[in-house]
Design goal:
Distance between the termini: 21 Å
Number of domains: 1
CATH superfamily: P-loop containing nucleotide triphosphate hydrolases
Order of helices and strands: EEEHEEHEHHHEHEEE
Oligomer: single chain
Bound molecules: adenosine-5'-diphosphate, magnesium ion
Helix content: 25-40%
Number of helices: 6
């Protein structure tokens, strides 16, 4: 599903070049639920942003579902991302003036050839799956953090992406809510057969994943497959 080869990422900070990722290679199989763990600053967000086509590597190649993103223009990459990739962020990133329903519907407006009925049925189905149907007309300021993340999960899945990246999705939540959100992501991943990559600095909240990848200073130091 994902094949990253020899990724390098250099950030320019003033006069200094910071080589955050030196030589990162990784293959993720279709349908896998992968957890990327590592301390703060180890490069998890940098890696996810590159794999998720939000940012480009300084060098190296990323192939997603057989398609190389290397030669794509900004617009091509944005379209490719919209059609194939879902993203869930630590800070939820919901649009404050839109209702829960409209936030979930939003990515579908970019997709052509989707009838209004199809759009509505997808949004309602996901509202139901994440347990937010009763709150569909509220704006984000009227719901809790855990509920916001439920909405963000629904929004990430509404386009039927091939792969979903979640960057510290539980970092702003209490432990109990964090576990509920992880269980929800797992349930949805199983039901939709979506490939899922989830980054966290908190190894304690990781359980029941297919694969646990540990990152330190931009390098994979462990890659464990778990048998369940
Ligand atoms: P993590 O998500 O694991 O906390 P990051 O990928 O955010 O790690 O950061 C990895 C390293 O890259 C850190 O040392 C961070 O300070 C640095 N970094 C991240 N983004 C930038 C940026 N835009 N400019 C300069 N340095 C950055
Ligand atoms: Mg991060």
């Amino acid at each position: 599903m994902v094949k990253a080869s020899h990724l390098k990422k250099v950030y320019r900070a003033g006069e200094i070049d910071l080589e955050v990722i030196k030589d990162f290679s990784l293959e993720i199989n279709e349908g896998e639920f992968v957890s990327l763990v590592g301390p703060s600053g180890s490069g998890k967000s940098t890696v996810l942003n590159m794999l998720g086509c939000l940012d480009t590597p300084t060098s190296g190649e990323i192939i997603i579902d057989g398609v190389s993103t290397k030669a794509m223009s900004r617009t091509q990459r944005a379209n490719f991302r919209g059609e194939n990739i879902g993203f869930i962020f630590q800070s939820f990133n919901l649009i404050p003036v839109l209702s829960v329903y409209e936030n979930i519907e939003y990515p579908l407006i970019m997709i052509q050839n989707l009838s209004e009925n199809e759009r509505k049925s997808r949004v309602l189905k996901l509202l139901e799956e994440v347990g937010m149907l009763d709150h569909k007309d509220k704006t984000p300021d009227k719901i809790s953090g855990g509920q916001m993340q439920r909405v963000a999960i629904a929004r990430a899945l509404v386009t039927n992406p091939k792969i979903v990246f979640a960057d510290e999705p539980t970092a702003n939540l209490d432990t109990k809510t964090a576990h509920m959100i992880i269980d929800l992501m797992k349930k949805i991943q199983r039901e939709h057969q979506t490939t899922f990559v989830f980054a966290t600095h908190d190894e304690k909240i990781v359980s029941n994943v297919d694969r646990l990848i540990t990152l330190v200073d931009g390098e994979i130091v462990a890659d464990q497959r778990m048998n369940q």
